[in-house]
Here is the input.
Amino acid sequence: MNRNLPPARGHGYYSRRDMLTRAGAGFGALALGALLADDASASGGASLPSDARPPHHRATAKSVIFVFLEGGPSHIDLLDPKPTLNRLAGQQLPESFEPIITPMGEYDAPLMASKRKWKRHGQSGMWFSDWIPHIAECADDLAVIRSCWGNGLNHSNGVCQMNTGSILAGRPSLGAWTSYGLGTENSSLPGFVVIEDNVGKVINGPRNWGAGFMPASYQGTPMSGGEEPIRFLTRPAAVDAERQVSKLRLLDAMNRSYAAERPENSELEARIRTYELAHRMQSEAPEAVDLAAETAETQALYGIDAKETEVFGRNCLLARRLVERGVRFVQLYHGAGSKWDSHSAIEKNHSRLCRASDKPVAGLIKDLRRRGLLDSTLVVWGGEFGRTPMSEKGDGRDHNCNGFSMWMAGGGVRGGQTIGTTDEIGLHAIEDRLHVHDIHASILHAVGLDHWKLVYSHQGRPERATQNEGHVCRKLFA
Here is the structure.
């Protein structure tokens, strides 16, 4: 019998239910004790058995790397050339085009030409602008989707929808749904990792990678590509392994005793699991995030040897190392803090951001391919929306969620193809339109999850990642 039970509340004695509940917490602590003992005696830091769950159907991808360009990259200056827009530049939006609502309202600014030079690339002859020459070298690996659309007019609800499927906060992120549906292949690393290039600046913050109404254990784990990729993971030099294990056992006992009285509090259970994971990560994570183990040639492939590309190059290389070790979902933020937002000076803004991200992203694709990992890793590239063909402030573009571009590569995606179209000036998606829900359904499909069967019961209601909408874009897959 546990002699350290907390004092009974209210009636002064323990009911049978109280006794079973409190005693149950002790059984949970046995798991941690076994883990700690195993870790204390291990020398090689080998991974523990995974909690991987079978997919709904045969998966074409084991992992996802989502390269998120926060702020809204301009599709009509990167992936979707519009000769008609250049011809009509300086004129008002023709009456034949349905106007759109932007954060500035429905305005009548003149159309603005794209200054980019366009060229066909690869055997497929896909069009890319001169802003992304390195990504263009991967043309035959990419499926460019030119007909994406969503409901987010501003950054907050646009980023929220692209991450969670809803313009309103509070729902689980796509990475959380993936972790919930598949579990993790490596119990010594998180199943869902988030890496920011500008830590703490992403709009909406942790809500973008939160678990919403699901247990908090499915939320993303923040990392960075800097000197300390995982904060507070390293044990202080003054604390030896035996002392740390003793502290963790005491902390676990207190946490589980508290949690036993509050079974509805999933965050505490998630915190307990986080402590357990963190202890296991002390053995495996340092090796996983050690970029110095990579050759100089590999680091140069990602641009780590150049000042402009060093930060995002490190992040992309870290993402490859994580999926290589069984991490299911990695979210890479570039331009955190809405840096891709270009209401003015789009030439200066996008030129700088493309130089910083183009080579690292291309390096990621090339490195995955040569290591035989591209077939099992789905890479997704895009932002929360695109930009308008109309000008703003004379040299910028406003938000446009009615038609924009993304691309996918690897993970069963058939490269060298373009899916969908926008109208002649890039304002509206008109053919093979893919809503954010369709994009999410397709990503889940690649990892073997049927978005209709992936259900979490919340307050008696069946909840789905795509909110009972969306369809898989079959054209994406070979």
Summary: The two ends are 60 Å apart (CA to CA).
